[in-house]
Amino acid sequence: MYPSHKTRNDPGQSRVKELSDLLQDELCSLKTIRFLKSPAAEEACEYLTGVLGKSPLLLKELDLSGDKLGDLDGEKLSALLMDSHSKLEKIMLNNCDLTEKSCSVLATVLSSKTNLKEMNLNNSRLLDSGVKEICEGLKNPVCELKILNLNNNCITEGDCHVLAAALNSNPSNLTELDLSENKLGNPGMKIILTLFENVQCRLEKLKLKCISITDEGCAALASAFHSNLRELDLSRNQIGDSGVTEISSLLRNSQCTLQILSLNNNCITEGGCHVLAAALNSNPSNLTELDLSENKLGNPGMKIILTLFENVQCRLEKLKLKCISITDEGCAALASAFHSNLRELDLSRNQIGDSGVTEISSLLRNSQCTLQILRFLKSPAAEEACEYLTGVLGKSPLLLKELDLSGDKLGDLDGEKLSALLMDSHSKLEKIMLNNCDLTEKSCSVLATVLSSKTILKEMNLNNSRLLDSGVKEICEGLKNPVCELKILKAEAERAALRAKAATLDEKLALDVEEANMVAKLKARKERHALECELAAAEAKVKVYKEAI
User: Fold this and answer.
1) How far apart are the C-alpha atoms of 339 and 354, rounded to whole Å?
2) Residue that finishes a domain, picked among 206, 231, 264
């Protein structure tokens, strides 16, 4: 018989594992187990087990974003995080109203010997006082935090001074810092860049999206270059072509080992592309990901960027060119400049027509093509459906004229996302098969929306998909829409299967059975009657379809 609980002992790590395994044993009736070192830690553990449905002692990541923290006292959470039995390495407190006291508690945790390596406090409305409290923890030599995310927290230039001072006093651990969507401006950015003056700085990823910097901030970045930096995100700023020129001087540096560069939405034009391409061609062997989405490149700018692929040392694997005003002309240039290292290409939200799709399709048929993800659809929902189906089918549905999602291939894909894909002008699907599926009324409503839209869909197979009357009515709403150009609708297998089953039962009933088998014969008659009802319902569905057409 198992003990009901064990408290304020120190079972050690191997015993903790055994006790945790015991809790997961399906034969174990134990609901609560206590072996932490303080009542506060026990209370926090019990509260979080109720909220999360699992003991936090079994987790390496703890997500308390939103209102999950509830009424739990910060000091009790602190006690749990600092307990030697806690294995938590990552904590998420995004979208929380963190008070100065809450931040003081987090500072205590950071100043203690824990396993914590990542802290996410995005959109948690930290005040200046809260930033100062957290910085007290960051500068403690005991703190071993590697990843700190402070996105959208109204951090100002003044807070940057405090943060930079804290990180400079304990620089050897932090590898990722996200200060995006804060009010830094060029002055705040320059202060953060002083981190790179410290030879012990280990920062590899720096995210500064939407912090209102210009070419002035880019000039400071180029002069403060640090060789450990692997990823830089300056998206949604106003750096323009002159800012690109400054960053290009960094990229030409032979010591630059930058692998990921995001310059999304920065007012970059064809002129900036010339400078950027020249810099990357002079030092091509490191960059693997480039994002120039939502800039004013057009076909001329895209063609310039594609010259990177002429360099045999080019290592680009991911290229994002969303919403840059390219047309079929740009797609033709892409097809001719294909590079075998490219794994992911995003051309969504551009003006690509049928000839552009043809160009891209010819690229995909190239035996040397290693593209795994290709996006050029008009909505995120269509893109998500396309990506999901590519994984299921092993081929992009954009290359198909027939889509077979019979059985359970549809999986967890939301019907509305599938609908978005089928209605996208780039879809060439003429036939869809959804045989042997459990189609709900909502699923049928989505199909009705597809049928009521301008598509090239000509055939729909819904054989043996157990449609309810409500589902049939939904599909018929689509069929009677003047836009619908469906030529073939198949929903016969359900009726055929019922007839076959009925025939089998008829054979059983026709046999001479002994009196001992009369019960079985009566059961067969009941089944036959139920089948007649189902068959009548199936015939009625067919009649409804015919009337709608």
Assistant:
1) 23
2) 206
C-beta atoms surrounding 378 within 10 Å: 16
Q: What is the CA radius of gyration of the chain?
A: 31
Nearest to 376 by CA among 348, 349, 396: 348
* Shared domain check, 243 and 144: no
Any domain includes 335: no
Dist CA 123 CA 259 (whole Å): 28
Question: Percent helix, strand, coil in the chain (nearest 5)?
Answer: 45, 10, 45
Alpha helices (runs of H) in 70-127, residue ranges in sequence order:
74-82, 100-110
Q: Region 354-372: what's the mean pLDDT? A: 79
Cβ neighbourhood burial of 36 (10 Å; 0-12, 13-18, 19+) = buried
Beta bridge partners, 147, equal 118, 176
CB 480 within 8 A of CB 448: no
CB 172 within 8 A of CB 145: no
Tokens describing residue 99: 């008070």
Q: Do 468 and 507 have their domain in common?
A: no
* pLDDT beyond 80 at 521: no
What are the CA-CA distances from residue 527 to residues 75, 520, 533 (Å)? 65, 11, 10
* DSSP conformational letter for 269: B
At 203-261, the pLDDT tens digits run: 999 999 999 999 999 999 988 877 789 999 999 999 999 999 999 999 998 888 899 99
Rounded distance between C-alpha atoms, residue 293 and residue 296, angstroms:
9
List the domain range (segments joined by +) for residue 501.
Answer: 497-548
Q: Residue 367's pLDDT is what?
A: 77
CATH of the domain at 272: 3.80.10.10
Report the C-alpha gap between 239 and 247 in whole angstroms: 10
Q: What does the alpha-carbon distance between residue 429 and residue 541 come to, in Å, rounded to a whole number?
A: 26
Would you state the pLDDT for residue 4?
43
Query: Does 379 have pLDDT greater than 90?
Result: no
What is the model's pTM? 0.76
- Per-residue pLDDT, 532: 63
**Cβ pair 306, 275 in contact under 8 A:** no
pLDDT in tens, 305-340: 999 988 989 999 999 999 999 999 999 998 877 777
Closest by Cα among 477, 489, 429 to 449 = 477
If you ran DSSP here, which 8-state letter would residue 408 be given? T
Give yes or no: residues 224 and 345 share one domain.
yes
Which of 188, 206, 224 is the last residue before a domain boundary?
206
Tokens 């995210």 — which residue? 207
Instruction: Share the mean pLDDT of the chain.
Output: 83
